[in-house]
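Q: Sequence in, structure out?
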Amino acid sequence: MDWQASRPEGDGRRHDKPSEVAFTLNSGFFDADRADIAELYWQAFGGKLDRVMGPADKAKCFIRAVASPRHAISARAPDGTLLGVAGFRSGEGALVSGGFADLRAVYGYWGAIWRRGLLSLLLREVDNGRFLVDGIAVRAEARGHGVGTALVGALCREAQARGYGEIRLDVVAENIRARSLYERLGFVTVRTERSRLMAALFGFSDAVTMVRKP
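A: Exactly. Output:
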């Protein structure tokens, strides 16, 4: 399937909340969604990435270029508005990855050199025994209406379809809202890593690894 040009397939579900927010879940995203993907991703993770990926306009340009629909699940309103996106990582890539050439195209040669080195500190290995989540971002006005919960559920179904017995994510310890959501959805903490270097470079020192069965 040409994921860049084809309309993603919906999961056949309609999600309605008392506040009349409705959406469907889809595998991948449209090529025309790239600007929205970049905006949502930067809103969710720009706080920790800004020191390395900034300025914001260049960071979002990079994300627009490298975002992979093969590693994404999107939530969309009936009018087509992108409400959220969830990414996952595999041996073939991730929602947002890219290589040196992609960095150089946006930041130039020397900008790509040092950014590649620092970003490697954030990379989590592909866990052969667990399905690895690569970020969940929800539009501000759609938060609290079940979009994030539905995206986690879709990731779990993707993990099952790929034969994984566990799903894993990493979250900044200070992100209490996200951690509380994941705990409510059955994730448990299995490891907490502390790093002064990460605090200096990315503004957080503790990374929490959480897992659950799909």
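The mean pLDDT is 84.
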